[in-house]
Design brief:
The chain is of the alpha/beta class. The protein has two domains: about 5-160 and about 295-310, Rossmann fold (3-Layer(aba) Sandwich), CATH 3.40.50.2020; about 165-295, 3-Layer(aba) Sandwich (Rossmann fold), CATH 3.40.50.2020. The chain contains nine helices and 16 strands. The strands form four sheets. Strands 2-1-5-6-7-8 form a six-stranded parallel β-sheet, with helices on both faces. The relative contact order is 0.12. Bound molecules: ribose-5-phosphate.
Length: about 300
Amino acid sequence: MPVLSGDSGLEIAESLSMIMKMDFTKLETRKFPDGESYVRVPEEAIESIRSEEVILVSNTFPDSGIMKTLFLLSAINDIRKGNLTNVKQEGEIQLGDVGPGVILAIPYFGYARQDKRFSWGESISAKVIGEILSNHCEGMVILDLHEPGVLNELKVPTRFVSSMPEIANFLSIDVKPDFILSPDKGAISRATEVANIIGSKYSYLEKRRIDAHTIEHTPKDLDVDRKIVAIVDDMISTGGTICRASDALRRQGATEVHAACTHGLFTGGALSRLANHVDGVYTTNSLSNPRANVSAAPALARGIEEIIRELR
Ligand code: R5P
């Protein structure tokens, strides 16, 4: 099965192809001068795309990532259908329809946090994106989705996989934490998984978001005096959640505070802000960033293997 990717998810797709012992092909993606997205499947990939089912690795972030993912799915599906017609009449040999066969692997699923209608009149954006994508592939694998429940009713098999085992492994070697903290209730299962793998204690904080840049934690006694603590979350955006959690930990005597997450968005100077509050920041490479120390490929490989078994 060939592993394909455009520019987003390239590094992950290459590692994935090595883990799964599959061939890797880079697809062409670029921008027009006005910022619109352009994609093209190179001629040398046509035969392999038609000979077997394929895996497309693509992020749906930022918004151009959604467009590129949809255009790549469309181009691949057309090639599988044998539809190579074009205005230049190049390569227009008669090819039959080899049937559907695209598994979409998404390292970072954009709009994940708009998973509810928080106020009247909003769209449930994560569901909108999931439904559109599911119309163009036979299965999806999504890494550490903020709230998987929002995509429970998609019409194609979908696997929600987690990089927490790889993050736990990294932390146990490089940080050796005594205590794992979830900065809010939403990340409890992730923090628990990491703590169980490392064999450390864990707890969580109750968080209230005032606005996109301001959060508050309910004060709570934590057993962190003279301990090395790692805060674990699905994503870091402004860094506000981690900075506030770290302040609470330091007030209670933690000697070192580290932060680990799957998706490092790091918006608006988050990394400099974090540098004043934590001793280290670690993420997977689901999004490229200077703190990406953990590969997202093993988790995606686990989900792809399950989808392949289910589809056969
Ligand atoms: C939300 O519940 C997520 O799990 C993260 O805690 C949140 O998105 C982090 O955002 P920020 O870094 O802006 O506080």
